Amino acid sequence: METKTKKFMIIGLVVAITIAILAPFLASSNPDGFESAAEKILNPGIEEAELYESPMPDYIIPSLGEDPISGSVAIVIGVIVVFILAYGIGYLIKNKKK
Amino acid sequence: MHIPDGLIPLEQCIIYYIIVIIVGYFAVRWARENLDEKQIPLLAVLAAGIFAIQAMNIPIPWGTSGHMVGAAIVAILIGSPFAGFLVLAVVLIIQGLAFGDGGITTLGLNIFNMGIIGSFVGFYSFKGLKAVLSDVPSIFIASFLSLFIPAIACALELWIAGAFPLIAGLYFMGIYHFVIGIVAEGLISTTVYIAINNVRPDLIATKKINS
């Protein structure tokens, strides 16, 4: 990998992780556009059918409790998993013999 | 606009999954033939950044909030709506499976809206607008549309599913996402585009296509 590409990748990752750490502190906890629309339209709002329990529901680590730090950890994990997965898929697609 | 489980009938969910699998096939074929090996780090960083920014809900009026989706900026930077599709598919799969954000039965629907409609609307409106406007207004309008049009699609899908009435659905999904499209999608995408254009213009694939 070229040095400048590596530099760009590292800066990009630092930015992403910074956003991930700050998000639970700064993000609005208001319902999002879809949830608000659903609240206005459906009475009494959306009835979510929990089909399965995700490991980090609502972007928190359950064992760390519901504070923003727990949120930061969860989102940083997400950023790293997404990065590795996207990189891996890109690599596999390009390197699998046709 | 991550649709949870329970609102869309299963047989309709399957249709969206089928469309996503078909587009996924073409996206993989596109990547194998056209994605430059050097673009893989950019693709991965964009995916990571979009996952992070989607956790950052920005307040808008009416006690509501919204976040950027990012399909347009990825498609425009990498030079294909299929790139936006691949990145959004990865992000939405992780959000759905690991974070309970968006349903499992509706994963196909969510990828269809944000990954397919968002990427194609964003990419092709950018290309069209560039013929008459300069880069900055083009990216702003294209990224706005890449959020607003999927929201309208969402309202229609929820109407087809029998979950939302047509007019009220279009009205509320429309006004909220009109504002989210401007403040979250339009402004951030434009800022990212200008920033990358300043430091690494060579990374912007659509620049090469058009010049």
The fold-level CATH name of chain B is Arp2/3 complex 21 kDa subunit ARPC3
What's the helix count of chain B? 8
Mean pLDDT of chain A equals 89
Straight-line N-to-C gap of chain A: 23 Å
Rg from Cα of chain B? 16 Å
Q: Please outline the major beta sheet of chain A.
A: none
Summarize model confidence as the mean pLDDT of chain B: 95
Number of H- or I-type helical stretches of chain A: 3
Quick description:
In chain A, 62% of the residues lie in helices and 0% in strands.
Describe this structure in words.
Chain A is an all-alpha fold and 98 residues long. Chain A contains 3 helices and no strands. Chain A has helices at residues 3-26, 33-41, 68-95. The radius of gyration of chain A is 18 Å and the shape is elongated. Chain B has a single domain (10-207), classed as Orthogonal Bundle (Arp2/3 complex 21 kDa subunit ARPC3). Chain B has 8 helices and 2 strands; from the N terminus they run ααββαααααα. Chain B has a two-stranded antiparallel sheet with strand order 1-2. The longest helix of chain B has 34 residues, at 166-199. The model of chain B has no long low-confidence stretch (mean pLDDT 95). Chains A and B meet through α1, α2 and α3 of A and α1, α2, β1, β2 and α4 of B.
Topology:
The complex is a heterodimer of chains A (98) and B (211).
Chain A lengths: L2 H24 L6 H9 L26 H28 L3
Chain B lengths: L9 H25 L5 H15 L3 E3 L3 E3 L4 H8 L2 H19 L7 H24 L4 H26 L5 H34 L5 H6 L1
Antiparallel strand pairs in B: 1-2
Helix pairs in contact in B: 1-4, 1-5, 2-4, 3-4, 3-5, 3-6, 4-5, 5-6, 6-7
